[in-house]
Structure formats: structure tokens, C-alpha cells
Batch of 4 targets.
Target 1
Amino acid sequence: MKEQNKPLELDEALAIFDSWASLRGLSEETIRGYKIDSRQFAKYISQTVTTPIYINDISDQHIEEFMHFLVGEKKCSPATVNRKLNTLKMFFRCMKRKKLILEDPVEETERMKVVEKEMNYLTHQELRKILNSIDHPTLYYFALTMAYTGIRVSECKKLKLEDIDFQEHSLKVINGKGGKHRTIPLHLTLSDELVSYLQYHRPTTNSPYFFALKRSGTVSTQYLNQILRNASQKAGIRKHITSHTLRHSFASYLAKQNTNIVIIQKLLGHTSLKTTSIYLHVQQDELKEAVGQIKY
């Protein structure tokens, strides 16, 4: 540990943060995000001064100026700014716990207000039309799995052959968001479909991943989103469709069936019920029906 009276440069602090984050059991995606965001902050700070940057010299003013930079020059959305601010909160929390700083410059910084938008979701008919319009076998089964389980695209990409138990009809998510594991029951229809995928459609490859393309051994999120856009256009669906729409549709369907929100939370792998609640919809037709029932 550095002595408190010995100045610690920002680059040294970032290396300490990387090591600290790697020991917390976080997912590779989260650690990668921490590195990208913290380096962007360091690069911004380095461009504003000509002298060495010491960790104890960073103030709340630097944080606010960085936020203005993200909004003004980088045109980042409030949600993106808040995500980067969360990284800095973790960074300076690490520094304070290791007694490398006296004051946390992010501690009193307020997050930007995010206007919540209702996400697109697909009806049964729309989902089936889109799935039927996907010509690529591996991407079809990938999308089908997301639609039947609600797992994140990053979790579906990392599924390995041993993570699906056809005898128990279950799917294991290993090191999901936050490094957490969970087991999801496998719908019998999906189970039969995935057996067919393994027998007739999965390419010959040494890839350990369940969904594998012959050339890359994995599935690209960008490629999947492009396939979904093409399929939605072919199916005549004008909604903005991404891989996340499949997860959202899964949660929305369960909510419309009056599934207990705690069950939806467990299936989606959310830590907080507040996060799960953004997936719940009240349809305009239902609002009209409710108002129509009023009798004075």
C-alpha cells in the first residue's frame, strides 16, 4: 500500500483499480466497461493539465467538467453519463477503502435525470413472424432461446454446451451480470428445438459455445441485431427491434399473465425489483377499458 504522504499518480491508481476489480468476481463485460470508462476519464484529465496528475488532486469540479465534456462534446445520453459516473464512483470508493485518498470527489455528485422510455415489445404474432423470417439457422435458435428464457444477449452468447441439461430441462447462466449464476427452467418446446439444432444445424466446430458460427466460433451481438432488423422488415414489423426486445417481450408476456414480479425478477437475474418494474406494461387498451368501467 502506498504511503498517504507519497503522491499517487492517476496511472498508478488505475492499475490498482484494475487489480481490485478483477478480484471482485465481476463479469468480463463489467471489468471491460470499467477499464474503458476510467481510461476515458484519465485521458480527459490529462488533456486539461500539463503536470503529473495525482489522485488526491482530483476534485468534484473535475468530475463535473468531465460530465459536461461527455454531454457537450461526446453527445452522450444521460444514461451513458450515469454509467460512466458509476465507474468513477467505484474507482474512488476503491481508492478510499485502500486509504489512498482522503476525500471522495464523486461522493456528492448527483446523477443525471434520465427520462424513462417505454421499451418496444413484441406480441406473440409479431414474434413468430420475425422468428420465421430469420434464415440463418444458428441465429434463429439463438433468438428463439432468448425469447423463451429472457436471458441477456451476453448470457446467451456465453452459453456452453454443458450449460443446458436436456434431462432436467434447465439452462444455467454462469457469471451473468454482476458475476451471478442462475438456473432457468427450459420450456419443453424450446428443449425439443435445441435438440434439433444440435443434431442438424450446429456447424462442425471446436468452439465450446452452444451457439457457434463456423468462422468465429461465437455470435456477434451486432450481427444478431442486423439479422433481427432484416427479419422484422421482411415480416412487415415496423417496430425498432434489437436483441433486447426479445428479453423485454419475455418479461412483458409474463407480466400480462399476472406472474408474480419476484418470479420475473429471478428469471431475468435482476438484483432489484425496481429494475424489473421497467419491463411491466399497462396497455392503452387496458387503460381505456379501466376508464370505461367508471360509473358515477
Note: The first strand starts at residue 164 and ends at 165.
Target 2
Amino acid sequence: MNPPSVLLYRSGRDLLLRAMEIVTLLPVAITVWLLSLMSPEQALADLGSPAGIWAFRIGLTLGSGILFYSFFFLHGRYVLSVELQGDDVRIRFWTVLGSRLRTWPVSAWGGRSLYHKGELILPGRPVVQAPWIDIRTPEGKKLMIDDQGEYPQGVEALLTVLTPGDDD
């Protein structure tokens, strides 16, 4: 029988991230679809050479997906939830194709945390505040914990489990 789980953190933004991923993927899909409608003869007449056609298609596809590609930065780094189950830490990550769950023993953790204010200040614009906590897995991979998420046991409980040697 498994020991009961204690929820230490939940971001609450998984559906929002999924919706934003779909919205940012739409321009790429529409661009690829529109490029498929262009006849080879018309493309050759407009762009002059097969190399020009490929350069145009690749450039347009990459340009239309610039927002979508930023999601690859969050892939496997953005923490959706952290649970303590007995002597194990279970972390669910956001990925481009869904979510992934990893489990580590509590004793494997011992890194440091770094708090980022996440402020974006542009003249004449509202200030954007998206603070996050930067934590490393036992293997050294950087994780992002959205500080605007929920800490049912308090942020100190989460940091005590994931960064027991961090005195900052």
C-alpha cells in the first residue's frame, strides 16, 4: 500500500499553457496549409528558382512559428505539481505533448534555489510580474516553479524538501 501523498505545489496553469500552445501553433499550421495551395509553376514564376521557393517556405514557416517555439523552452522545465509520497518526491512537468511524471527519493535532492522577480518593465506599458523559483533536479536539470502557483503546505515546505542544504 502506498503512503498518502502530500501536495506541496500546484501551478494551476496547465490548461492555460495547453490553450496558448494551440493558439501559437495555429499560424504555423495555416502557413503550411497556404504554402501547399501554391502551385509549383506559380511559385517558380514568383520566386525564380527551386532554391528560392524552399528558402521562402522555410523562412515563412519559421517566422510564423516564433511564438510556438518559445514553448520548447518550457518543455520539461515548467513544474505543474510537486507531491511528497513517503520518501519520494513526485514532480509533474509540462511538455509540448502532454505532461510527464518523474519520481526521485527525497534524499537525492540537495541543491539550491534561486528566486527570480520576473519583472518586465517597458515605458508606457503595464509592468508584467511573473516570478518563478529556479531549482535543479538531482541530475542538474533546471526546473521552473511558477511562484504564482499554490503552496498548500507553504513555500517553506516545498523548499525544505527540494533544497534541504540551501541556506539562502
Note: The chain is about 40% helix and 30% strand.
Target 3
Amino acid sequence: MSTHPLVTQSEFVLVEKILISLETKGLKIQTTTVFLINSLTLYTLGFVWAEAIELEDGGKTDPKLLKELQDKSVVLNQLMKLLQDNRVINDKEQFFQERIA
């Protein structure tokens, strides 16, 4: 599913359902619609692939490395603080909430 273009009737029926749903929310089908579908599909598939692959070292970063990175980079320090304070958008917010406050 993630490695080939749409070719079957069932795949096109699924796209039709998605388009109808998006049209009811105000989407107008135009030249950028294919780009939109590709972007949403690739984002979702990438997210699924990232979740499906077992993380190296259980997904835990060495605390010494985090501190070292934070001390060396203002930008990474800002990002790490958001992660450490658990102030990031989680998967449920990404895929299920219409609006995040």
C-alpha cells in the first residue's frame, strides 16, 4: 500500500470517500488537490512506519547527550525543553482533534 500508486477500484473508491469528506469541509478540487492527497498520504504513512519500526536503545536518549546538546545549541535547547515538559502534540492530537488550542 505504501509503495505503489493507486491502481485498483477499491483504492480509487477510498480516495473518492476522502474527497467527498473533504469537500463537505470546504475543499475545492483543483490543480493542487493531488499534491494535497499525496502530502497527507505520505505524512500518514511516514508516521505509521516510524511507529512500526522498533527504536534503537528502546527510544531512550542518553541524558548526558541531551544535556550536552542543550548546552551547545539554543535551538535544540528550546526543542528539548518542550519535549521534557511534555508540551508536544501527541498522535491523538495530530490525527483526531480538529483544533488544538
Note: The mean pLDDT is 79.
Target 4
Amino acid sequence: MSRVLVNAGIWIVWMTLAALWTPIVLAAFLATAWWDPGRRVTGRMFRWGSRVLIALNPLWHLTIIGNPPPRRSHPFVVVSNHQSLADVLLLGTLPWEMKWLSKQSNFRVPFIGFMMRLAGDVGVRRDDAESRVKAYQRLREWLDRGVSVIIFPEGTRSRSEEMLPFRNGAFRLAVESRRPVLPLAVSGTRQALEKGSASFGRADAVVRILEPVSVEGLAVREVAHLRDRVREVIDRARRETSQGSDAARRSATAAAPRPPEEPAQLARGSQPSW
């Protein structure tokens, strides 16, 4: 019952905040869109809400490892593995603006969808070839304006610990636009908000900012090689981070002081008093 109440409380707080945040993002858009073609101000204002939402969730803890690339090196085609719906919020806390490729249904979520449109995020119907073409044209426009874009090349969240195969789209976009790929490795978010569930779980999430991958000199025929190379880099980083976190938890458990047992009570089959 307590978990149900905690989850209900978090959702109520989140939706209330989303309703209150919407006019703030709208005001930012109206005040800056005429001189800010990259909608950086609006986008950052929208994504600042992610930090507030995470701070208001007592079940989540976020660690970011690695340094953001210098501002002069932007824009990038940013790619990340995808474990949970929580990834969108966690990656939204990164300190640079990115336009997101997101499934079209997300733009129908009350308040959130409206703010996504204001920020310039790009919707796509994955089973519609025309929609995919238009979405990638829009992403290319943002890159031409000097704004990074972010794509989950798995296409959807994996239901297991294993990453799904990467699709070509993000890497073709990088090669054709001559923009470097910036890989991100996410770990620890699977239980935060599991696929098909609206229930929050405890999560020690880690986002690792990896080294950019240059596309200089690559031709379109080498997209698959670039895709596989980046996937390997992300998968290795994700596994290393996950193993390190597990080892740290085991170490902390082993080092924790244990209360003395009470043999007489245990022998009678009763629970120890501690």
C-alpha cells in the first residue's frame, strides 16, 4: 500500500508541475523565438523541468560521468541506449540543448507534448516511411542551425538487459550532415520506470558522456560500420558502469556492520529482535 501511495504522490506532483511549467515554457518561446532560431532558450527552459521532476522523486538518484564537449564543437548527432522512459528525463538534465526524435504519440501527452513542440522536438511515426523522411529532414535543419539532436538508435526500449540492434538512421544522418556522433551510455534505469508499467522503482542511474566519434572521410556505404562501432562503444561502457555499480553495492553490503545474532531466539524459530 505504501508503494502505491508513493507512486500516486509522485504522479500527482509531476502532472501538477507539468501544468505549472507549461506557461513558463510558452513565455520563453514567445519572448525569444524571434531572435533564437535554434530555440535554445525555450528548449533549455523545458528541459530544466527534468531536473525539478527528478529532484521531486525520492526513488531516483542520478550520476553523470564525463565532461560535456566544448561548446565550439557542437552540434552533434547524440545517440544513447534506451532502458526506460526515465532515460528521457535523465538525459534532459545534460547541460546542452538537444532536439529529440520522439514517437508521435508522445506529443499527445497533456502539457508535455505541447512543450515538446515549443522546444522544437521532432515527432515520427516509425511505421510510416514518409513520416521518417520528414523527421530526418527536420533533424537535419536543426543541425544546420548549430543545434545538436538526440536519437535512440534501438528505436524502442529493450525489455531485457541486452541492447537491441541499432538502426542506421542516426548514423546516416551524421555521415550526410558531416557531424560527429556523441555516444551516451545509460545504466541503472531499467527499474526506474519499466516498459509497460506506470510504477516507479528505485534507481541508481548513471549517464556516461563518451568521446565523440568523427565521421570525417566516411561515405554513406560505411554507415553500418559506424553504427556497429558506436554500438560496441556504448555497450562496453554500459557494462563497465553496471559491473562497477554492482561491485560497489556488494562491497558496501559486506562492509556494513551486522548486529549480533541471538542463538536462543533463532533456535526457537522466532525472528531476531534486530
Note: The chain has eight helices and seven strands.
